[in-house]
Here is the input.
Amino acid sequence: MDDKIAVKRALISVSDKTGVVDFARKLAGMGIEILSTGGTARLLAENGIKVKPVDSYTGFPEIMDGRVKTLHPRVHGGLLAVRTNPQHLKQMKDNGIEPIDLVAINLYPFKKTVAKPGVSIEDAIENIDIGGPAMIRSSAKNHAFVTILVDSADYNRILNELEKDGSISLATRKFCAVKAFGHTADYDTAIHQYLSSVYR
Here is the structure.
């Protein structure tokens, strides 16, 4: 694995938008292209940050009330490609896939939703995130090349490294990958516990 990976393109899609505007503004100020979805894309654009909606990048619209928006080969190919593999690079070129170097995601607020008194099973199920965990896992699996952020508390760590020399260290990518897998494990555990209690 390369010790340092430059960041040219970031995908940002967050439910908890704490600190995301300042984070994205600083990334954009470094010349990093920002891809985003739904409410995050609107928030960034409203704050004067140049952003490319994911549907304009994939060429496929968000459908089914947002249930399907990032589940696309141009997204996951950009996250999962082994960039030292000539065949992967050729397949990226042949299919118009661009590398995505940095991903900032946090998931639909499932725990908060099911903690509400009288929450319906329908509301709970709609707050089961699908695309988010898929992108987190793709990015974390490929941490040799991709940095995955699931916690806004880590934004400054990433910005500090980028401001220093325009790249993210392997140590930080490993740290972020471990944290990311813990995040999805906790999320799935919460879903399992809730469904186990209501589907007894």
